[in-house]
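Exercise: predict the fold of this chain.
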Amino acid sequence: MERFQKAMNLIDQGRLQEAKGIFEEILMDDPKNVDALYNLGMCFTELAHPEKAIKALEQCIKYRPNYSNAYVALGFAYSRMNDTENAKKYFLEALELDANNSFALRNLGGLFGRVGEIEKSLYYLEKAHEIYPHDPNTVYGLGYAYQRVRDYEKVDKYYKQVLTMDASGEIISLAKDGLREIAVSHLKAKGFRMDAVFYLLSALKLFEQKTEEEIRRIAFEIALKGQSGLNINNPDTKYTLN
């Protein structure tokens, strides 16, 4: 038990290769340890060895055939190999064992989204969100799916919700990109925003009174602020130049 907990702690630290080694040691002593098999499979998938993950997870299911999360993990390993049919098969089998498995629902939603079946994608993602509303991957998935059907009000809602969550840097970045895309779409659909035109005219008048060196310094300061990201979709956020 002590070795197993050490391996789980290593996973929490992102040290998957070391954790994998400990799970393999445990299985040498206890080949039917389903918890070690399950987590070994998860490690293999994250370490880009889905074919090895499948072998470990098939053994896990053999010894515990009603282990819903193992079916989800197996489906996820197949999805990493772009085997959509087997991925869908195991996600659905997970739901047969546990209809409220939010991970199976979320992954099915993502799978259907990738193959363009947006109605099914939204069905499963909405169900996953009802069960576990605090999962940033599910919330991002909903934003992405609604973006595909151009329901921009819901896109805006879910992408902005992602920005308030404890999400990975990748998911945060994708949500920000999505917000920028819908902002551009709205701008193109509505034509010129007169408030933006007046802001630009005011800026041009201001620059007329500046020297070339002063303009260069202002441009440099704007560029520095832009490096940390400008939240142009939040009207409450204001930026000030020195």
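Check your answer against the key: The chain has three domains: 1-98, 100-191, 203-242.
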